[in-house]
């Protein structure tokens, strides 16, 4: 690789232009999420998010795998499910720092490009940096090549980025994303999940990850049906997050008083859409209404039964 | 030691300029015209995949004429520069001015130091928030930069095209009028009519959300140019 003669960034390649932004960032020596070389104070350009002191991360974690040092309870729940016309992706809004809540309005579901979305679980600083790099990577490829990257290609690229983060993950800054999008070739929505080593698996119908993921998956398993329509899919996502928030301290539930609701996104043939807060609130209110109608709240002691005067 | 005849620098520069100009004159033309909502680009280009006009960043587009391999090289270098800047600083910090300066430096270095100059002319355009906010930087093979306003023509018949555009250009024209004017100018200069398939048309449209660049397909171009007659 000879450096370019004209002072522009990036190496001159013997054949073809390398469309990877990540490789470009690495070649100019300011790789933020790199990841493979571990945290290092790089030249100022990219800013090194690895500067978050290991172990005190501001976390949205996927539950630190056994054997990895992690110490601090992170928490989050993000999920994705397929429906008739595409994919719904949703996440709660809580970030934790040790035993305190760092943020009750954080956003964990992002557009990766027009037709795909990525949701993050893990150390917040590291995860948002990977998302930013991933977004730039996809757009960079599209501009350099003049063509869009396939959904498969995007999913693979993300896997490589997560794998690159492994040294940081070993220090507790785990990042485990969830990726979903509309496959233009196959004309269907697809969901990919990852593990901390960059392993990538395609999910057939739904998946949830993060510390509350296991509880959300329970709800999704019961509620998901083939051919769900958009509204039902949004409601299922909200219900799964609501259930997860009740079981998992690190997952935030809807806060009616402050107007904090889960963030819900839809990716379909027409692209990435954010579901309005009103629609999410509507879905949540519908769930609560049905719960009240079918099963009046039961207190642990049974004492509330008297007050609630059920039907 | 071999004998090197003395060549005065004036002669050297002139020879190189002539060489570059000849190369550019052989190529097809590109025009850019400001219109009410942004900037329109029109290139005579039968290929639908090898572009003369492309997106560099959110508000910035690139157009090149001359030797494909050379302006393609510059285009990719520009995308790299823009994406790195935007990633390291902020998206709004990537401007046409930055790119134009970088291109100017690069082309000037190539012109004086490489075996042969690049046979290209490029345009770096940025759409502004409002009508007066657009920038059009026209950069020549030797690195000289012109900050243009209203319209720019580059390539083989650029002088004739500029004369035509001078007559037809109206500030604040609609996209339809701007496109028709540009197509008329190119057709008149080339003395033939163009099918929409033979034209590459793109816009930087300030009404779009983040990425302002959009290509217009042959159907859309046909509708605009053909619709309602002339």
Features:
heterodimer, A: 311 residues, alpha+beta, 5-stranded antiparallel beta sheet, globular, B: 230 residues, Glutamine Phosphoribosylpyrophosphate, subunit 1, domain 1
Terminal Cα separation of chain A, in Å? 76 Å
- Overall structural class of chain B, as computed from helix and strand content, comes to alpha+beta
CATH architectural designation of chain B: 4-Layer Sandwich
Helix residue percentage of chain B: 40-55%
Fold-level CATH name of chain A? Glutamine Phosphoribosylpyrophosphate, subunit 1, domain 1
Count structural domains of chain A.
1
Total helical segments of chain B: 6
Beta-strand percentage range of chain A:
15-25%
Strand order of the largest sheet of chain A: 14-4-5-15-16
What radius of gyration of chain A results from the CA coordinates? Answer: 21 Å
Helix content of chain A: 25-40%
CATH homologous superfamily assignment of chain A:
Aminohydrolase, N-terminal nucleophile (Ntn) domain
User: Quick one: CATH class of chain B?
Assistant: Alpha Beta
Biggest β-sheet of chain A, characterized? 5 strands, antiparallel
Find the CATH superfamily of chain B: Aminohydrolase, N-terminal nucleophile (Ntn) domain
List the helices and strands and how they pair.
The complex is a heterodimer of chains A (311) and B (230).
Chain A lengths: L1 E2 L7 E2 L8 H7 L31 E2 L17 E6 L2 E6 L3 E3 L2 E4 L5 E5 L2 E4 L2 E2 H22 L5 H14 L1 H5 L7 E6 L4 E7 L5 E4 L2 E4 L3 H11 L6 H18 L15 E6 L2 E4 L2 H18 L9 H5 L3
Antiparallel strand pairs in A: 1-2, 3-10, 4-5, 4-14, 5-15, 6-7, 8-9, 9-11, 11-12, 12-13, 15-16
Helix pairs in contact in A: 5-6, 6-7
Chain B lengths: L8 H18 L3 E6 L2 E7 L8 E3 L4 E7 L1 H21 L7 H18 L6 E7 L8 E5 L5 E4 L2 E4 L3 H11 L6 H16 L8 E7 L7 E4 L1 H9 L4
Antiparallel strand pairs in B: 1-2, 1-8, 2-9, 3-4, 4-5, 5-6, 6-7, 9-10
Helix pairs in contact in B: 4-5
